[in-house]
Amino acid sequence: MRMRTSLRCLAGLGILAASGCGLVLGLDDFKDGAPAGGATSAGSGGGATCEPERELECYSGPPGTEDVGICQAGTQACKEDGSGYEACAGEVTPAKETCASAEDEDCDGKDCVAWARLIGGAEEEVVSDVAMDAAGNTYVAGNFKGAISFGDDVLIASGDRDAFLIKLSASGEYVWSHQLGDARGETLSSLAVSPQGDVIVASLELEHDISSMSLMLHRYDPDGGVKWSKSLGAKMCGVVPSVVAGMSFLPDGDVVLAGSYCGTIRFDDAHAISNETDRGDVFVAKLRSSDGSIDDESGWARTWGGEGAQHATDVAVDAAGNIIVAGDFRDELVLGDLSYAAAGGSDAFMAKVTNRGRVSWARVLGGTENEVLRSIAVDRLGGPAAVIGFQGVVDFGGGEVAADELVDILLKYTTSNVYEWGRVFHGGLIHNELLIDPTGDVLIVAGLKESAEVDGELLRAKSARDLVLLRLGIEGDPLWVRTFGVVGEDGIDARAIALGGSGEFLVVGETSGKIDLGAGVMVPQGDGDIFVASLRP
Question: Where is the signal peptide, in residue numbers (predicted)?
Fold first, then answer.
């Protein structure tokens, strides 16, 4: 029968000190040896180094991680001839944390979710966008009815619906908030945050009868102070409002915004663009972040139109300051000297624009039915990835793919517009937003209705709608997928995802039922509260 002794002499270094262990255990209970790695170490007189059949516990992980999460000690057995110990067997040491399960892989006592919190009130709240600065602070923008509380601060809507901006610390604690709107009501559509924590938000201000409107921009400093606010103008496109769909800070400190509009947008006294039809045109503009105007040397504004309607749905910026604008159109899309005709009802498009406003390339993504571009992101080299909803037969660059009903496809292209790979997701998986982390992995936040298949794994929703987080490798192979449901019949609406400087990422959305994202059960106050969760890389 083997005897087992538990030793922790110089734990984590795999070393047993003869005199030290003798003092701890008593020399009658211990024969000096070299258990770590099985090496022998005879004393000055030679002979056996351990007692045959004896076992020692062994653990080479960092101090404080043993018996935390998945980490556990193994055993080392003395060889039959007593010449030394076998290698440590069965130990589990810290590994990279993933969100594939609720297990604590890095053995720090925490799940993948670093923190999570609800934001809400007695009525309805909707989140529009989320971002993170270089220090890990979180910025959440959205809209609310009635009143909404942030810790001890309470905002009360002046109109039917007002907008809000909130800053949370790196640990999820409330820092400051702003309310946007008056009796006319204001709806926030997007925000951009600089690495230093300067914030620009875009909103839509509507009149009482919803016949007139204005696009608004507001800038705040890291402490929440208002630096400037301005109206851009624009008007309704029939019954559809003009909108700033996406916005981002550029490496040179300027800001780029893209969206759809009718009427006239006036950026400053010297720069304006116009679309006098009732069908939306795309606009893209590079503005000074200092005051929202256009610099005559480095700034610019572009409008893209054609027959039918054109819409921008997202914008992304690469490390060199190049801009990828994505959206969809009907009938025709004219990008300066480039012109494209829609193949079906509506087609998706991507266009790369230089920092100087010149279109480098464009790609139309269309087939026999309708295509909708949901989200776009770029890798560190500037190669875009896009999620597109499609139906029918489409060739996205890698050969024809077909779907009898609306499904989503994830597509990856190089910085020079060459197709790399695509992944089709069948079933009730609707992708809301994606990002690409510094390693090239793709992270997606999506909603799941009923069921969907991912890499041969069948996902089943626990409620009316589940939250799905999906990570794919640089070649598009799924690395892990995790679903979050709510307690009861109500569901979750996943909205947006944002990346931090250390690889952590944020997920936001709304929940109408109790939800546990890994940091404990959270209970909404009203019809639907906003959830914010920070997940570690």
Answer: 1-20
- Tokens 């298949």 label which residue? 453
User: For residue range 151-206, what is the model confidence (pLDDT) as tens digits?
Assistant: 778 888 887 788 999 999 999 999 999 998 876 778 899 999 999 999 999 999 87
Q: Which of 377, 412, 447 represents a domain boundary (last residue)? A: 412
Q: End-to-end CA distance of the chain, in Å? A: 45
Taking a C-beta distance cutoff of 8 angstroms, is the pair 505, 499 a contact?
Answer: yes
Residues 6+ away with beta carbon under 8 Å from 28? none
Task: Specify if 421 maps to a domain.
Answer: no
Provide the pairing of β-strand 457-460 with 427-436.
unpaired
| Dmax (CA) of the chain | 99
> How many angstroms separate the CA atoms of 537 and 535, rounded?
7
The count of C-alpha atoms lying within 13 angstroms of the C-alpha of 353, restricted to the half-sphere facing its C-beta, is: 31
Interior angle at CA 221, CA 215 and CA 226, nearest 5:
55
Token pair 């990570």 is found at 471
Which runs of E-coded beta strand occur in 291-418? 300-304, 310-317, 323-329, 332-335, 338-341, 347-353, 359-365, 371-378, 384-395, 400-413
Please check whether residue 374 is in contact with residue 432, taking contact to mean a CB–CB distance below 8 angstroms: yes
Q: DSSP letter for 528, please.
A: B
244-298 pLDDT per residue, tens = 999 999 999 999 999 999 999 999 999 999 999 889 999 999 999 999 999 999 9
Tell me the pLDDT of the chain averaged across its residues.
86
Q: How far apart are CA 83 and CA 281, in angstroms?
A: 81
Q: Do the domain assignments include residue 167?
A: no
Please list, residue by residue across 337-346, b when 16 or more beta carbons sit within 10 angstroms of its beta carbon and e when fewer do.
eeebebbbbb
Tokens of 201: 């938000």
Residue 22 phi, psi (nearest 5): -65, -40
- Tokens 């993504």 sit at which residue? 365
DSSP secondary structure, 458-509, as one string = EEE-SSSSEEEEEEE-TTS-EEEEEEE-EESS--EEEEEEEE-TTS-EEEEE
Whole-model pTM: value is: 0.83
Amino acid in position 324: I
Residue 279 domain boundaries: 251-390+404-412
Answer yes or no: is 236 within a domain. no
pLDDT band at 536; cut points 50, 70, 90: confident
Q: What is the dihedral of CA 358, 359, 361, 366, to 10 degrees?
A: 170
Mean per-residue pLDDT for 61-83?
A: 94
Number of domains, the chain: 2
Burial label, 516 (beta-carbon count in 10 A; 0-12, 13-18, 19+): middle
